[in-house]
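Cross-posting from the chemistry board since nobody answered there.

I work mostly on the small-molecule side, so proteins are not my area. We synthesized magnesium ion and want a rough idea of how it might sit in this target. Sequence and SMILES are below. Is it possible to get a predicted 3D structure of the two together?
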Amino acid sequence: MERKQAPDGAAGPAAAGAGEAKALPLTFGDGWVPKAQRRKLYVLLLEDITVSFDGFRALDGLTLYLREGELRSVIGPNGAGKTTLMDVMTGSTRPDSGEAWYSETVNLLEEDEVSIAQAGICRKFQKPSVFETLTVFQNLELALKGPKTVLGTFRARLSGEDRDFLGGILELTRLGPEAGRLAGLLSHGQKQWLETGMLLSQKPRVLLLDEPVAGMTPQEIDRTADLLRSLEGSCTIVLVEHDMEFVRAVASKVTVLHQGRVLAEGTMDEIGRDPEVVEAYLGGAAC
Ligand SMILES: Nc1ncnc2c1ncn2[C@@H]1O[C@H](COP(=O)(O)OP(=O)(O)OP(=O)(O)O)[C@@H](O)[C@H]1O
Ligand SMILES: [Mg+2]
C-alpha cells in the first residue's frame, strides 16, 4: 500500500544518483517525475491543496493523482474533507493554496464552475434531479443536447448516431424497458441510474459521484456496482461513499481521507489491514 506524502517536487527513488541517466518512471508515487511532466500523466492532479473555513482546515495539504479511465473510491469519516475535495474539483470552492490541474492544461483554480463542467468534469449530487414529467428517453435527450429550452430540444431531431448513443446509455443503465415511462414513475434506484445516464450523455471525461447508493435497496446497490464497473476505462470516476460493502463490490483503488489529508491508498483489503486507517476511520472495527 502507498503511504501518501505531500510531494516536494524533488523526492522519490529516481531523484537519487545525480547525473545518472534513468528512464522516466511511468507513475509518480512509484518514482519521481519532474513537476512539469506530472500533469501529462494524470487526468486530475491535486497537489498540496489547503482549504480553510474560518481558520479550520477542511483540506490540509491534500495530494491526489487520478489516471485517465480510473475508478477511484474516496472514503473517510464524517468531516474528513470528501465533499470539500469534490468542491475543489468542480470549482465551487477555491483553495487557499496548492495546485489543481485537469487534463494537463486546465488550471482548476482559475476556472469557474460552468467552464469546468463544460470542460468535462461532471458531478452527481446525492439527491437525483431528473425531470419527472418527461420520459426516461426525453431526459437523456435533453441532457445530450445541452442547455436549450425543453421545447427547442424536442423540435431539433436526433441524428441516428445520437439515437444509437442514447440507446447505449439505456443499455448500460438497464433502463431500456423504461425508455418511454415518465421519470417520475421510476423507483429511487432507477432515478439515480437515469441521472447517471444523463451525466454520461454529456460525455464527461471525469464523473464525480457523491454517495450514489444512499437509499437504494441491496439489489439496486449490486446493479449500481455493475454499472460503475462497466464504466471503468470509458471515463474517470471518483466515488465518494460511506457504504463499505459497495466500495468493496466496485473493487476500485481506495483513497482514505482523514482530517483533510490522504491517509492511505490501496485496495479495500489493504486499507482494512492498516492500523492507522482502522483507528482513524473505523474506530477499531474491521473494514
Ligand atoms: N462552508 C463551510 N463552512 C465551514 N466549515 C465547513 C464548510 N464546508 C465544510 N466545512 C467543514 O469542513 C470539514 C470537512 O467537511 P466535508 O463536508 O468536506 O466532509 P465530508 O468528508 O464530506 O463529511 P461527510 O462524510 O459527513 O459528508 C467539516 O468539519 C465541515 O464541518
Ligand atoms: Mg460529504
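Reply from a structural biologist on the board:
Welcome over. Reading the output above for you: The chain has two domains: 29-130+186-282, 131-185. DSSP finds eleven helices and ten strands in the chain. Happy to explain the C-alpha cell format if needed.
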